Amino acid sequence: MIEPDSTVTTLSIGKPEKNNSSVKKVKKTDDTVPWGIHAIGADLIKNYGKSIKVGVLDTGISAHPDLNIKGGVSFVPSSATYSDDNGHGTHVAGTIAALDNKQGVVGAAPKADLYAIKVLDSNGNGTYSQVIQGIEWAIDNNIEIINMSFGGPEQSETLHEAIAQATSHGILVIAAAGNTGYGEETELFPARYNEVVSVGAVTKSFRRSSYSSTGAELDIVAPGTDILSTAYDQGYATLSGTSMAAPHVTGAAAALWSKNKKWTAEQIKAKLFETATPEGDVKEYGHGMLNLARALGEIDGPIPPIEEVSDFDVNQWDRRVLSYDQDLSALLQSAQTMGYKDLASRIDETLNQLRARNLALHALPSDFSESYSKEESVQQAYDVNEYFRLSSESFNALESEYQNALQQYANILEHPTTETAGLAISSEGVIGQGTIATKNQVVSFPETLDNSYNRSIAVNIPYLTSVNSITSNNGTATYTISGTTVTVTAGGRQPN
Predict the structure, then answer these.
(1) Which of 314, 312, 284, 321 is nearest to 384 (CA)?
(2) Residue 387: what pLDDT?
(3) Which residues are catalytic?
C-alpha cells in the first residue's frame, strides 16, 4: 500500500515575542537562566551534555553566539543549507544546549553537540517523507538523541518503521505531544508512537498548559509556556507550546547521558520517568514534571513551582454562579408571588448589580479579539484563560456576594420580618462591649423580629436599669423584663 505523504507542522503557538520583560532581562555579560531551566533543576548542575550528539529535526538552526552547531543537513527542497529561516529550530536548540558562556541564556545541556537536521520549511511545515529522511540521516551519523518539536494528525506505518529503526540503533527519540488541548486522545504523531517519549507542557505553576495535548501515550511534562531561548536573528525571544517543552526533556536526557555514558537510551528514559514529580492524572501529566536535578542525584525531592498553583477555573466558576443567579431569580419570583413588593424590589436591584459586575469581569480588552488570526485561535484561548486566572480574586469576591445575597433573602422569605424595632433606655448605662447608652437612646435589636408567627427574642443588655418603651413599625410588640434581659414578642399583620 502506498501511503499519502502527510504533513507536519511546528507545535509552537503564535510568533516569537522579542520585546517583553523576559527578553529585556537577558544580560550581555552573564548567563540568564530561563524559568524552564530552573524549573527542571538544570541550573543546579554545570556544563553537562559533553560529547552527546543531539539531532534537532526542525526548521534548521541559525548561527548564534550562544549556540555551538557541530553540523547538519537540509531535506527541504527549497533550502540548500540547514540555516533556520523560520526561527523555531533555533529556539528549540537554545533550550537544549545554549552555551554557559557568560552571555545570553543557558540551556539544559550546554556541552551537548547540536546537529541541525532541517525537515521543515520557512513556514514551519514539512512532510513525513522529509522527516523520515532526517531520521535516516540521524541513524547514519550516530546521533544519540532526536528532538522533534512538530506533529501531524495522520498515522503512518512508514514513519513508525523509521522511528522503530532509530530506537533499535539505540537512539532516544523525543517529541512534542501536541497543542490540541484536553481530550481522550489528542496527542499528535510522531509523539503518539509508543517508542517516542511524548512531552506535554506546563506553566510556571507546574499545571498543564491549557493547549497541551493529553492521552494514554503521554510520558512526561516540562516547561512550555513563555519559554525564553535563542532567536534566529542572533537575539532572544519567548515562545509557548509543547514544541518548547520537548527540548527541555532532550537537554535533560543529554545531561544525564553524559554522566552515565554506559547507559542505554532505555535506561536514560526510565531514569527520567522514575525521578519525575507526579502532578496529576497520567493522561495529562504522564509520569510527571521533569526533574533533572533529582535524576542526577543533586536533590532528593521535587522542585517548587515558579508560581503558586491556582485552582481557579473560570468555566467551573461560571457554572456555580449561574446556579446562584437562578436561585436568586427564584426568590425574586417568590417575593412577587407572596406580595412582598419592597423585598422583591430589593432582590431585583441586587440581582441587577451582581449581573452587571459579572458582565464587567468577563469583558476582555479589545486586543484579545483584534490581535489574533484564525490560525492563532489556540493561542487566543490560552491567553483568555490566563487573563481570567489573574483576575481570580475579583471573581471569587463576586461569588461570595452572590452567596451572601442568596442566604440573606432566603432567610427573610422563610421568616418574614419587621426591620425596625427598638428599646428606649430611660437611664444612662453601658450596652454590650462598652457601648455607652445615653438617656432615651433607642437601641436596635441585633436581629429582626417575625410579626407573622408571634416570634419571641431575648435581648441581654448589661447594666440595663429600665425600659421606657418598645415599638414596632409593623404590627404590635410586647415585652417582659428579667434582670438585664428583655424578651420581646412581635406579632400582628403580614409584612408589606
Answers:
(1) 314
(2) 72
(3) 58, 88, 243
- 472: which strand partners? 421
- Write the single-letter amino acid at 298: E
Q: How far is CA 444 from CA 192, 257, 414, 424, in A?
A: 71, 77, 22, 9
- Which residues have a Cβ under 8 Å from the Cβ of 136 and sit 6 or more positions away? 162, 165
Contact residues for 367 (Cβ-Cβ < 8 A; gap 6+): none
| Alpha carbon of residue 133 to chain centroid | 37
pLDDT digits (tens, 9 = 90+) for 106-159: 999 999 999 999 999 999 999 999 999 999 999 999 999 999 999 999 999 999
First vs last C-alpha separation in the chain:
83
CA distance linking residue 414 with residue 34, whole number of Å: 59
For 7-62, write each residue's pLDDT tens digit.
Answer: 999 999 988 888 888 888 898 778 899 999 999 999 998 779 999 999 999 999 99
- For residue 302, what is its C-alpha cell? 521535587
Q: Are 354 and 346 in contact (CB under 8 A)?
A: no
- CA gap 449, 179 in Å, rounded: 60
For 353, other C-beta atoms within 10 Å of its C-beta total 12
- Angle of the 392-414 helix axis to the 377-390 helix axis, nearest 10: 60
Burial of residue 482 (number of CB atoms within 10 Å: 0-12, 13-18, 19+): exposed
Contact of 79 with 121, CB cutoff 8 Å: yes
What is 153-189 written as a DSSP string? Answer: S---HHHHHHHHHHHHTT-EEEEE--SS-SSSS-PPB
Task: Give the Cα-Cα-Cα angle 380, 386, 387 (nearest 5 degrees).
Answer: 85
Residue type, 342: D
In 32-102, DSSP assigns E strands to 53-58, 69-74
Fill in the amino acid letter for 174. Answer: I
How many alpha carbons lie under 13 Å from residue 358 in its C-beta half-sphere?
A: 19
Cβ(194)–Cβ(225) under 8 Å? no
Choose among 196, 347, 355, 255: nearest CA to 48.
255
Domains of the chain: 7-295 (3.40.50.200), 314-414 (no CATH), 421-491 (no CATH)
